[in-house]
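Researcher: Good morning. I'm working through a list of sequences from a screen, and I'd like to move beyond sequence-only analysis. For each chain I'm collecting a predicted structure so we can compare shapes side by side. This is the next one on the list. No need for commentary yet; just the structure.
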Amino acid sequence: MQRPSLFKPLLLLTGAAILLLLMKMAASFLAPILLAVFFSTLLSPAYTWMKQRRVPGGLALLLTIGILALAALLMMLLVGKSMTTLASSLASYSDLFSQRQAELTAAVQSIEGTVDLKSLLSAIDPSKLTGALQFALAAVNKIVSTSLLILIITIFILAESSLFILRLNHSFGADHYLTVNINTISQLMVSYFGLRMLVNLATAGATGVMLWLFHIPHAGLWTVLLFFLSFVPYIGAFFAMIPPTLLGFAQGGLGIALSIIVLSVVINSVTENIVAPMVMSKGLSISPTVVFLSFIFWMFILGGAGAFLAMPLTMALLLFMNNFEEMHDLAATLMSVPEAEEAKP
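Model: Good morning. Structure tokens for this chain:
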């Protein structure tokens, strides 16, 4: 029996490695474009719905852009004000962290027993906790600083989306496997992330109310951050809750921080295991391990923007693989796509 050749797999791996290296080098250029593609994907159902209701294309685009611009303006005002205030208060939070560390140290010393918690207390370094807040602010600030560019690119993508499909059909034909696969992937992405947005609203809304009740500073900022990071199921919510948990620890001590952790886990578990299956039914299903690794991987490649784009990029890649004979089995191992199976060439 003839052994399979390793030339083609090695060639594909080499090409992928070169492409990823170029993406990492051009991360500052690619991130706004990829974010614009993602936002235009979320807005495309509204744009299409208005056109189907015989709203003129130009007016439909103008209304869609107006919705996007209004949402972007409100978020920029909220996020910008919160980030400015929080950045100016980092020194005071460093002092609060030092106080909390001293309180915990005194509490541990007053407890008689054989359990040694000194090593754990030494890990609660005020400078490290303050550094975690600075990292979160830097990641959000990087995206906010390019928001105008993202908005402009999103407008162009929305305006060209229908023309692109027409040109694709004209060039290759409606029955060509490339046209069919692109249309299938686009429909699945729009369906998944449109429904995912509803789940994220439930998660962020409930968590925002909880943070407000605990009087966590800048609860609106963390609610917006949680909404976007929740596009990465399970993992995104964990990372989004780190800053408000640290602020809760600084403001009210270990009890408040633990309460925030427990309640956020309960809220996320309910939305992911009860609300999400009800809303999304039998849609796309990706292995939790793949979700976690993709989150870490795309953050490494694209920086802070990679946290928001991890799920869209991973899904696009797996859906692309799923629609080709040579890579279908591997994609099926990592993700369940019942709707896309009929679109295989």
